[in-house]
Amino acid sequence: MRVGLSCVLASAIAAAVAIPAQGQLRRDALVQPVGGARSGEVLLGVGASRTANADFPLAGLRGDLAALPELHAAWAIGPRVVFELKGAARKTLSIETREAVSSVDLDPSLADGTSRDVGDFELAVSFAPIGGATGFSAGGHLGVRLPNSDETRGIGLNTTDITIAALFSWGSARWRATGWFGVGILEVPVEPFEQNDAFAYAFEGLWDAAPNWRLSVGTRGRTSTRRVSPLGTGDLGELRATVEWRRGPLAIDAGLGHGTTAMSGDWNLRAGVAWTLAGNR
Predict the structure, then answer these.
(1) Does 120 score more than 80 pLDDT?
(2) DSSP string of 4-54, one letter each residue
(3) 85: closest CA among 8, 181, 184, 166?
(4) Pairwise CA distance, residues 139 & 246, whole Å
(5) pLDDT tens digit sequence for 166-192
(6) CA distance to 7, 10, 106, 122, 194, per residue, from 14 (Å)
(7) Angle at CA 269, nearest 5°, toward 263 and 275?
(8) 189-201 confidence digits (pLDDT tens)
(9) Which residues contact 39 (CB under 8 A, 6 or more apart)?
(10) pLDDT greater than 50 at residue 6
């Protein structure tokens, strides 16, 4: 499975760096603060989340979705370039409602009311060659979501999606507002050689509220450019607030999110821990 490759990559990143130290990369980031990380800095994080009333229209399923463990590796491969790998090694859907007709052939094991599968993983690179660590900076964001999940389990779509966006940031030593805006190229699950283009966005404000404490609020999602979206490519969106406590290389975070579209589910709770490994000074 691709999740095995993901773990190998994360281990290789950890082996390539030096001494633990305070860093700026974040496990639960909507938009990774590219300008704040030192070259060579690495973050390895693990967490869990639970979403109420998650909707999977392709499979005709709806219920509470738990993800454990969620993995996140971020690597500052250059002075202002960050590479990320993130996804859930395991997802479990407690099926509450099931449509009589599904657009895909579902696995018979779902008859017990529960679906379990590996989650999709995303590879992304963000870069900001214009500007500095404070003030205004700009660059780009490229993300690819890999189809690890099996659509017969109802949780995944078995599609490859690409996000291409422009990245902008503004801030000081204690706060920063960062966002990217662009296009999401979505593979349509049940129509070969068909895609749906969407407006993709992410925005996050960070504030170092007190020593060792950081607060963030933000939103991320996509809006289809079609009047009627093919199944599995509809609108997604979430508002999120996160609090992070950091001491040396260790960071613990907890967040609360609320879906803004029908496919996004209702409330989402998440928490996790991360370890930062130092880069070049």
Answers:
(1) yes
(2) HHHHHHHHHHHHT---B------TT-SS--GGGSPTT-EEEEEEEEEEEEE
(3) 8
(4) 28
(5) 999 999 888 999 999 999 999 999 888
(6) 11, 6, 38, 18, 39
(7) 120
(8) 988 889 999 999 9
(9) 76, 77, 78, 79, 279, 280
(10) no
Given a cut of 50, is residue 277 above it in pLDDT?
A: yes
CA distance 101 to 104: 9
How far is residue 280 from each of residues 9, 23, 134, 138, 277, measured CA to CA in Å?
21, 11, 19, 22, 10
Return the closest-CA partner of residue 37 out of 125, 155, 159, 108: 125
**Cα distance between residue 175 and residue 13, in whole Å:** 28
65 burial type by CB count under 10 A (0-12 exposed, 13-18 middle, 19+ buried) = buried
Cα(171)–Cα(193) distance, integer angstroms: 42
Contact 61, 97 (CB under 8 A): yes
**231 contacts 56 by C-beta, under 8 angstroms:** no
Predicted local confidence at residue 102, as pLDDT: 86
Q: What is the pTM of this model?
A: 0.87
Q: What pLDDT score was predicted for residue 23?
A: 52
SS3 content of the chain, % helix, strand, coil (to 5): 10, 60, 30
pLDDT at 1 (0 to 100): 42
**pLDDT-wise least confident of 22-26, 31-35, 211-215, 248-252:** 22-26
Q: Tally Cβ neighbours within 10 Å of residue 194.
A: 12
CB distance 35 to 249 below 8 Å: no
Return all residues near 211 (Cβ < 8 A) that are at least 6 apart: none
> Please, where are the H alpha helices in 156-255?
none
C-alpha–C-alpha distance, residues 104 and 238, integer Å: 26
Give percent above pLDDT 70 in the chain: 90
